[in-house]
Amino acid sequence: MRLNHEESNHGLEFDESSGLPSEFRLTKSGKNFFIKVATTLMIETGGGERRNPVGGLEYFDTQWSSSIKRVGEPFTSQDLQGVSWIIPILIGPANAQVVYSMNRNGPALSTKVIFIGNQDLIVRNLVADFKFELPESQWLSNIAGNGMRGNLPLSELASSTGISPMGGLRGSSGLIHLSSADQSENLALWVDGDVEIPEVEVQGISSSQINLKIKTEFCSDLKVASSIPISLMSIDLDVPIWEKFPPVFQYWLGERGVTSPARPPEWIKHSMIFEAQLGYSIFAKVNKYGPYPTATDLISDLPRIKKMGFTCIQLMPRQPYPSYNVHDYWDIDTSYGEKAEIKRLVQQAHKIGIRVILDVLLHGVLDKESITSAADGVRSGPYKDRVDETTYDSFSTDVKDPSNYYIAWSRHIIDFEEAWREGSPAVSPLISQHPEWFYRDGNGNVTGVYTKAFDARSASWQEYFMDAMLFLVRELEIDGFRFDAPTYNDYPNWATWARGRANASALACVGLFQKLRPKVKDLNSDALMYTEPSGHLLRKSMDLNYNYDEQWLVTSLASPKTRSRHGIRSGKEIAVWMRDRDSLLPQGSMTAHHIDSHDTFWWPSWGIKWRREQFGLQMTQLLTCIFGSLPGPFMMFVGGEEGIESLLPKLALLKSSDSYKFGEVKWWDSSQTPDEIFGISYRNKGEAKTILVNPSENEVRTPFEKWFIPYESENLVGDSFLESEAIVLRPYSAVRIDSKESQ
Q: Quick one: which of 513, 498, 545 has its CA closest to 221?
């Protein structure tokens, strides 16, 4: 059966027995462009839940149902957004509707499932699988912000690959752009759910077939819910070629309210952030890392930090307790160190032009009960015999392959167990004082990953958190926050008040931060709002986001033996990847770049924690030149500066220049640029500053761009030199070039 409407040039056919789509079609100027699709839906129902050995919840005795039956005729609904076709269906035992919306604005056609409430049924998950068959061609994919290079033939995407969604830890929009070989046909698929954080996989089955699997992570006790919509994806067969698509997507984001505040304080873009840890961390039980035992030691090191070019200190929670957990936000002495010394740190840093921000945790409180539960889970779980295995940077792996992280996480729990137990209360008093703040399982027990998990949906918890953050700004006169792990509790809360949409808690931080932002800015208009996840939804209230999405580039460039078939292969492909990722971010978004952070340090095994240990000092210097020259701040965990102390001030000098602060970004991505070269220029008022990096074993000669007249250069790594019309870069070298615009 075919659905069309006069308001749209798109239409679809659905299977009459199931109501699921079988074809999407564009009719425009007498032309028909259509793609076939085989669609399946599955739901997980019933059963119970228990603590997962690696935290959160796992289900048991559930039933999967994939039988879909249409049980009524399509009917329409119209509103300001467009027209929707609603088809009643049964998904296994669940009464539901599949909805096709033909949109007036944004992507042309959207699909969703609505579960009907007041059913005596618990839904644990909804999984959608779309197998698209495109017209015969060698189709190219661009899935910006994910672990693959641009303009990738579908046939190169032969293995199933994870895609980070809008609310994910990494910085992808969940957008897939496809073009035929001659670019005459172009389409976009967008996994655009914004309530749960879905797991998304994509696979190129052939040169003209692609599979998209969406595990929505939706769950609900339907008897306490009303009508509940779950977005699956949007599709548009009438989009421009990839190079012209980003402005279209920016409009789509605006229509969905996914925009950046775009008003970051002026100091942030050119800042260099030094991540500092007080106390000591524990690795493999016998290795301790503690560069600053107390705040006094950090104060003594401020002149050296200033000399290296750092302009901001990010102060981590005190180690080993409470570590990256919560004791009580109001307790500065326990959370960060002696309050008087923390105040003195801020004052002394301000005197020499260094700002101070606090690293704040959101996921939950630590007490002896939660430590015992987490440690017992490790010792009885699937990784109990693997904690001594060698682990590497968890963020260099595919988003759907967390095993490296779980091994490292399990080791981390055992390493810190004794110190955490010694410092923590038997039971956090917040549990009895505010029981509504915490996640629960179906039996009413407080749950967590390894802490007792806060549910950021709780209005009274939000009030507690915001009041505490404002207290910290006033009491310590700090310059803002970096919020750690706000989406960490990405599993269901089955508390009575939350079970209508039990997995909607992880992204509740989005609204929380939107409420907090104006309150913080009212106290200090120059305060930084900065968070760990890179996903689009987390950029709605932030001046700055992390760059977890970029970490795979580090490994792909520096370790060719581990490179995937669809990974980047050269410096130029890094520049193109960065350009494309940034083009789909909400306008005004800013990213902080790093190669060594506490996360890249904590999860690998002892002896291969630093990039210099993994890839050698020379490659680390080249990676520093690349990531330190990108738009936005450069950050580094204390200790990562070893071997690059003389390089960091040169990057700080670049960031303090007018060309960088006020200039236009020019990526070296033209056909004239050799594949080996990473290049970026900042052009302002006829002047430009350029960083060129050759991370290859080949000597490379790159001709001047037409606008480019060099007048000064400085070798940053290795040896490069200017000829009359070209730059010659020796193997493994980097250079800064100052130039004028040609007339």
A: 498
